[in-house]
C-alpha cells in the first residue's frame, strides 16, 4: 500500500543517526569500563538504543512543518468487532505512518494511465490540489483551461492567453465548429422536433461554405429565406438566435503555444459569456485532440470546471482523454462526481475525491464501493481526499491530505496576438505569400511529416488564405527544390485518415526531413496505425523509439512499423519471437505494396499489411 510513499526526512540520514548513537554508547562504555566491564557493555547498549530511538524519530519532519505536500494520513478498513456494542463488520479509520506521495511514481504504479479527475466542492481544497499536481507532474508542456477569475492558474508561472482578446478563427475546421456549437448551446426538450444532430448538421454545412462569421451570417440568412421544411427551419432559427453570442468581426489565426493558460474570463453578463467561452473552449480542444499523438506529445492538459463541457454529452473531452494514453496527461476538475460520470470519468484511472454530499453524487460512489461511500460522505475534512479509482476498495481505502498548501505563485505573463502576427485583415494573400520564407517554414512543419494537402492547410492556418494556393506554390517550386537538394525525402503511402470517424482511404505522398532518427515518415505511420486500431476498439500503447520494443503494443497484438528506408530488415526477427512467447501476434505495417513484397518474403509467417489492409483486417 505504501510503496509509492516515503516519509519526509531532514537532511541528516540513517548513517549519521546510527553513528551519533554509537558515539554516545562508546563514550559511556569508556567511562564505565574501569568500574565493571559487564556493566559497561549493558549500559552502553541501553544508551545506544535510547539515543538511536530519539534521533531516529527526530530526523523525520513534523507534519506541521511540511508545506504543499500530499501525505497518506489514514486508512479505512472493514474490521470485525465483537463487544458490548454488538458484533459485525465496522468501518474504522486508523492513522497510519505518514508518507509523502510522489505523484509520478503513484501514476506509474497504476499502469501508466495519467488521466486524473479531481472532484470537490468549493473550499474543499480542490483547486489547491490541482495547482500541486500541475507543478508536480513530469510533462514538459502544459495547457491549462481556466474558467473562473477567482482561480490562480494564471499565476503558476505559465504565459496566459485571454481568449476574449484573441478569438480564434474557427472556420479552419467546420466539424469542430459544429461540435462546439451543440456543446455551448444544448437542445432543450421543449424544442419540438429539433434534434442536436439536425443543428449540428446545419452548422457544419454553413461553416463549410464560410471563411468568416460574416459569411456564416449571410449564408444562414439566405437559407432561412428559402427553407420551407419546419424542422430544418426551426434548427436554422435556433442557430440564428444564438449566433450573436459567438459572432466576432475580428478573429485571429494562431496555434496555442506548447505551454500556456487559456483564460476564459467572465464579465458582467455571466450567462452569455459562459456560452461564448464554452464554444471557443470546445473548438480549441477539438483542435488539440488532433495533435495529441504528434506535436502535443508529453503535454499535460488541464480542464478546470470540466462539467461546463462534459454535461452537454457532445464534448470531445471523453474521446481526447482516451486518445492521450501514454503520450501525456490530463486533469479534469469539477465540483461534483455526478458531473463527470460516464466515459470522461471512466477514462480516469485516478479519481481524487474530496468530501461529497447530495444523493446523486453519493449514489455514484456507492456503486463503486460501500466503503468509499462512508469515507467520502463522513470521514473527510478540508484538504483531505481519497482516490475512488484505487484498486480493491472492498479491502481498504487510503485517505490523503494536502498538507499546508502553498503553491509557488508568480506574476502574470500575458500572451499578445494581433492581426499582423496572424496575417489576418490588412494584407492581401499575395502580400502574405511573398513575406513567407518557404524553406524555413517547410522545415519547421516537417517536424511532423505530411502530404501536400496537410502542408497547404498548415500554411493557410498560420498565414490565412486558401490552402489550395499554398499547395500549388509548394508543389511547383519549394518541394521539388528541397528534394533535389536532398534536404527532404518523399514516400508513397497507401493512407487511411478518419473524417467524422469514417475511414478515408487514398494513396498519397508523404514528405519528411532527411537525417532524422526516427524518420518523420516512421512517426507519421505510427500515428496513423494507432488511429486505425483505436477506431477498431483496440487501445494502442505507443512505445518510445530506441528501447528494443515493438512500436505499438496492445493486449493481443504488437505492431512493427517498417518504412522501407533501412537496408537491414532482419532486426525485428528476435522481437517477433519474443512477443510470440508472450502469446502476442506481431503485425508488420508498411507504407505501400512495393515495400510489402520484401517483408512478406522475409517473414512469411507474419502478417504484413498496409494501412488500408489494416483497416479491413478483422482483429
UniProtKB/TrEMBL annotation:
Gene3D superfamilies: P-loop containing nucleotide triphosphate hydrolases (3.40.50.300). Keywords: ATP-binding, Helicase, Hydrolase, Membrane, Nucleotide-binding, Transmembrane, Transmembrane helix. The keyword Secreted does not apply. InterPro entries: HerA-like (IPR008571), P-loop_NTPase (IPR027417). The chain crosses the membrane at residues 12-31. PANTHER family: HELICASE HERA CENTRAL DOMAIN-CONTAINING PROTEIN (PTHR42957:SF2), HELICASE MJ1565-RELATED (PTHR42957). This is Predicted DEAD/DEAH box helicase. It comes from Cuniculiplasma divulgatum.
Amino acid at each position: 500500500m505504501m510503496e509509492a510513499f516515503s516519509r519526509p526526512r531532514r537532511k541528516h540520514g540513517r548513517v549519521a543517526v546510527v553513528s551519533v548513537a554509537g558515539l554516545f554508547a562508546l563514550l559511556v562504555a569508556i567511562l564505565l569500563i574501569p568500574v565493571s566491564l559487564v556493566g559497561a557493555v549493558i549500559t552502553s547498549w541501553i544508551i545506544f538504543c535510547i539515543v538511536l530511538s530519539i534521533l531516529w524519530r527526530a530526523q523525520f519532519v513534523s507534519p506541521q512543518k511540511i508545506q504543499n505536500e500530499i501525505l497518506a494520513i489514514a486508512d479505512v478498513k472493514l474490521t470485525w468487532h465483537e463487544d458490548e456494542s454488538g458484533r459485525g463488520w465496522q468501518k474504522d479509520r486508523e492513522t497510519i505512518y505518514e508518507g509523502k506521495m510522489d505523484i509520478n511514481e503513484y501514476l506509474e504504479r497504476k499502469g501508466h494511465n495519467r488521466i486524473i479527475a479531481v472532484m470537490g466542492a468549493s473550499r474543499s481544497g480542490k483547486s489547491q490540489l490541482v495547482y500541486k499536481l500541475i507543478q508536480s507532474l513530469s510533462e514538459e508542456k502544459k495547457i491549462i483551461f481556466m474558467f473562473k477569475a477567482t482561480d490562480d492558474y494564471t499565476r503558476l508561472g505559465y504565459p496566459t492567453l485571454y481568449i476574449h482578446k484573441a478569438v480564434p478563427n474557427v472556420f479552419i475546421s467546420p466539424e469542430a465548429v459544429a461540435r462546439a456549437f451543440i456543446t455551448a448551446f444544448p437542445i432543450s426538450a421543449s424544442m419540438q422536433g429539433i434534434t442536436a444532430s439536425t443543428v449540428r448538421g446545419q452548422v457544419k454545412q454553413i461553416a463549410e461554405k464560410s471563411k468568416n462569421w460574416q459569411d456564416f451570417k449571410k449564408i444562414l440568412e439566405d437559407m432561412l429565406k428559402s427553407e420551407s421544411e419546419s424542422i430544418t427551419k426551426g434548427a436554422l432559427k435556433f442557430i440564428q438566435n444564438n449566433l450573436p453570442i459567438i459572432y466576432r468581426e475580428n478573429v485571429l489565426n494562431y496555434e496555442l503555444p506548447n505551454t500556456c493558460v487559456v483564460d476564459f474570463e467572465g464579465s458582467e453578463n455571466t450567462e452569455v459569456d459562459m456560452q461564448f467561452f464554452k464554444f471557443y473552449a470546445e473548438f480549441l480542444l477539438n483542435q488539440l485532440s488532433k495533435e495529441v499523438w504528434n506535436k502535443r506529445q508529453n503535454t499535460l492538459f488541464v480542464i478546470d470546471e470540466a462539467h461546463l463541457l462534459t454535461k452537454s454529452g457532445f464534448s470531445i473531452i471523453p474521446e481526447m482523454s482516451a486518445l492521450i494514453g501514454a503520450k501525456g496527461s490530463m486533469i479534469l476538475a469539477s465540483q461534483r462526481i455526478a458531473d463527470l460520470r460516464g466515459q470522461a470519468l471512466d477514462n480516469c484511472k485516478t479519481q481524487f475525491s474530496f468530501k461529497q454530499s447530495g444523493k446523486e453524487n453519493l449514489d455514484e460512489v456507492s456503486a463503486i464501493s460501500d466503503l468509499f461511500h462512508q469515507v467520502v460522505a463522513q470521514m473527510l475534512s478540508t484538504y483531505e481526499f481519497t482516490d475512488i479509482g484505487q484498486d480493491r476498495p472492498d479491502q481498504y481505502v487510503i485517505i490523503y491530505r494536502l498538507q499546508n498548501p502553498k503553491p509557488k505563485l508568480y506574476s502574470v505573463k500575458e500572451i499578445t496576438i494581433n492581426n499582423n502576427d496572424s496575417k489576418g485583415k490588412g494584407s492581401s494573400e499575395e502580400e502574405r505569400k511573398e513575406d513567407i520564407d518557404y524553406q524555413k517554414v517547410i522545415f519547421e512543419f516537417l517536424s511532423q511529416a505530411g502530404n501536400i494537402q496537410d502542408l497547404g492547410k498548415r500554411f493557410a492556418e498560420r498565414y490565412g488564405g486558401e490552402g489550395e494556393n499554398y499547395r500549388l506554390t509548394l508543389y511547383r517550386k519549394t518541394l521539388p527544390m528541397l528534394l533535389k537538394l536532398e534536404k527532404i525525402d518523399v514516400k508513397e503511402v497507401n493512407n487511411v485518415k478518419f473524417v467524422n470517424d469514417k475511414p478515408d482511404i487514398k494513396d498519397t505522398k508523404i514528405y519528411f526531413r532527411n537525417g532524422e532518427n526516427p524518420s518523420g515518415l516512421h512517426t507519421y505511420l505510427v500515428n496513423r496505425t494507432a488511429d486505425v486500431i483505436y477506431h477498431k476498439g483496440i487501445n494502442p500503447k505507443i512505445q518510445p523509439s530506441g528501447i528494443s520494443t515493438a512500436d505499438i503494443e496492445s493486449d493481443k497484438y504488437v505492431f512493427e512499423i517498417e518504412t522501407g528506408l533501412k537496408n537491414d530488415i532482419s532486426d525485428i526477427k528476435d522481437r517477433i519471437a519474443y512477443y510470440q512467447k508472450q502469446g502476442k501476434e506481431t503485425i508488420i505495417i508498411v507504407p505501400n505494396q512495393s515495400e510489402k513484397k520484401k517483408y512478406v518474403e522475409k517473414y512469411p509467417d507474419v502478417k504484413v499489411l498496409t494501412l488500408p489492409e489494416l483497416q479491413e483486417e478483422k482483429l
